Amino acid sequence: MKQALIIYGGWEGHAPKETSQFYQTLLESEGYQVTLASDFEPLYHKEELKRLDLLIMNWTRGELPDEPLQNVTQAVAEGLGLAGVHGGFASAFQASKGWLFLTGGCFLAHPGGLETTYSIDLTTNHYITANTQSIPQLTTEQYYCLVDPAVTVLATSTFAAKDHPNAANQEVILPMMWIKKWGKGRVFFQSVGHSLKELKEPTIQTWTKRGFLWATRNTLADPLKNSQYSESSEKRMRK
């Protein structure tokens, strides 16, 4: 049985407990054993982290002390999967260069606010996105992120020039979902998820769930090299 830990907390505007329980449900439907923690205490135990298969961080803002950060960084390098969604991941611990380097990106702004309507465009054929379609219209926060060029971008969104001051009168296309590797570990992020409503949108839910499965320790040898999705590959992902 795969072992997952969800750390939640920080700014309450993202409903960290409720969204974490939703992630728990997604993983338990795949046979995972899931533990929820509302503080960083589990991250101080190196050996316990090494026995986990997946860590989901769901902590908006805040500061992560050096010791748990180093423990997580080392555990991911040794194969622990790391994943997160929206501000619980990209807006977490923004003063920590180590965290930003590990995760591959940082939330900067959502220029149009909650009522921004935009599309999401798939860019890469991958297990996470296979047999799904781009989203032509979604109304929620549109995350403007600074992104590590080392990531593999799975989907982007386009910011209209009118919505932010640095567009220089042209559209800006930025990643909204990416994956990366860190040593032997895998990292997954997607930016939609201000509330449960957005997380339960069918395509967003599919990407999120598959992203968690993909990041998990000891899944397919290298899904990045699989150009075509198949039912058999999804079954192997679940083992």
TrEMBL record:
InterPro entries assigned: Class_I_gatase-like (IPR029062), ThuA-like (IPR029010)
Q: Which Pfam families match?
A: ThuA
> Where does the ThuA-like domain start and stop, copy by copy?
4-215
Matching entries from SUPFAM superfamilies are given as: Class I glutamine amidotransferase-like (SSF52317)
PANTHER family in the record: GALACTOSE-BINDING DOMAIN-LIKE SUPERFAMILY PROTEIN, SECRETED GLYCOSYL HYDROLASE
Q: What is this protein called?
A: ThuA domain-containing protein
Instruction: Tell me the organism.
Output: Enterococcus entomosocium
